[in-house]
Amino acid sequence: MKRSHPVRRAVLAGAATVSGIVLLLSLKPGTDPGAAAAAGGAAPPAAARSPQGGRDTPGADAGAGTVLLGDEVRTPYGPVRVRLTVSGGRITKAETVRAPGGGRSDQVTAAAVPRLNQAVLSAQSADIDAVSGATYTSAGYRESLQSALDRADG
Q1: Against a cut of 0.90, is the pTM above it?
Q2: If 0-12 CB within 10 Å is exposed, 13-18 middle and 19+ buried, where does residue 39 land?
Q3: Which residue stretches of 26-72 are H helix?
Q4: Can you tell me the distance from the alpha carbon of 72 to that of 82, in angstroms, rounded to the nearest whole number?
Q5: What are phi and psi of 33, to 5 degrees?
Q6: pLDDT given for residue 142 in this prediction
Q7: Per the database record, which ranges form the FMN-binding domain (predicted)?
Q8: CA-based nearest residue to 36, from 99, 88, 81, 115
Q9: Residue 35: which region, alpha, beta or left (left: phi > 0; alpha: psi -120 to 50)?
Q10: In angstroms, rounded to a whole number, what is the distance separating the alpha carbons of residues 72 and 49?
């Protein structure tokens, strides 16, 4: 077949189009609107927080301790936000209210977040190890966790 044959051009154009579409679909978005839903909910509305910035107003479980909300930390795969319950100077509950989601991030988040939450309860500090395969999420988690702990001191 000649170099300028019309069928050859059509085959090459089709192959280039298919390759472009495959590459486009394999890109990972920086944020995903469904990330909060995939992580088990969204952060509480601003009206539920006091002007102190990170303390939730006490609810039905006011006797359970002080609830502290960490800063929302942006990661390449989506935002991370941690909420702590502190009672008697100890962290009694750690939960993630925002975490990366969408595509592979759903699987990574589902595996990493429970381990991170448990690590906080064991360490009683922000000095926790990253979860393998969830490096960015772990770093964002630690940063949000530290901001919540800073609020407990302030």
Answers
A1: no
A2: buried
A3: 35-38
A4: 8
A5: -60, -25
A6: 94
A7: 76-152
A8: 99
A9: alpha
A10: 14
Assess if CATH 3.90.1010.20 describes domain 30-153: yes
Structure tokens at 56: 């939730």
Return left, alpha or beta for 40; rule: phi > 0 is left, psi -120 to 50 is alpha, else beta.
Answer: left
Strands (E), the chain: 66-69, 73-75, 78-87, 90-98
Which residues neighbour 140 within 8 Å (Cβ) at sequence distance 6 or greater?
73, 74, 75, 79, 80
Task: Flag whether pLDDT at 92 surpasses 60.
Answer: yes
Taking each helix axis as running N to C, give the angle between helix 104-123 and helix 135-153, from 0 to 180 degrees, rounded to the nearest 10.
Answer: 40
